Give the backbone structure.
Amino acid sequence: MKKAGTVAVKGRYASRIPSKYLFLLLSLLLFGCGTSNDGDTRGTDLEELTKIEVTEYEGQDLSSLTDFRENSIKGPQYIDINDYTLTIDGLVEQPVSLSYDEVLDNQKYTKVVTLHCVEGWSVDILWEGVLLADLFEGVDVQASADTVIFYSEDGYSTALPLQTIMDRQLMIAYKMNGVVLPPERGFPFQLVAEDKLGYKWIKWITRIELSDDADYEGYWEQRGFDNKADVKP
């Protein structure tokens, strides 16, 4: 494991969302992205967090934790951290199941990254987390692996090319705007899929599989969304 600490990482910023997804928005609103967990009163916790969240970083104004729309397929997941493990397996020599604290034993990084949703909204958030590259060092990834598949507590999944993750130094975040992720925002870990549309930003990650299935399609990709999900300038 890497020694814990915090390092600021400079990054690039995508400017706008492509328009070709408009024909998919209706299905998204009806079947997942944009549906709320009606009756959940724990949203008041988010309001409390706004009193302590960071609102500016290195001269850049940040969005708030409350600026997101609820877009998960089954509503927020509430994970008992005492029972939680992050499994990293597949095409690796040494599969592992890491506790929350074991994941956080790695070097920490901070970076402002914009999340763009296909619904047309975006948020600029200061994320703090652990590089996937550091986690992969501990499992000895096999040479045949070219794809990383992420799985969520709620059954959601999505994938990215391994090379993309390594080249862009993508992380899984455990904090946003200086506070630990609330359950509504993906606790314990959310993928910070920089330069990718929001459906790649999987929350409540429980498993990461190294694979050679470059054509793997996750939940929304199976329903017609572009598997690359690039945010176009």
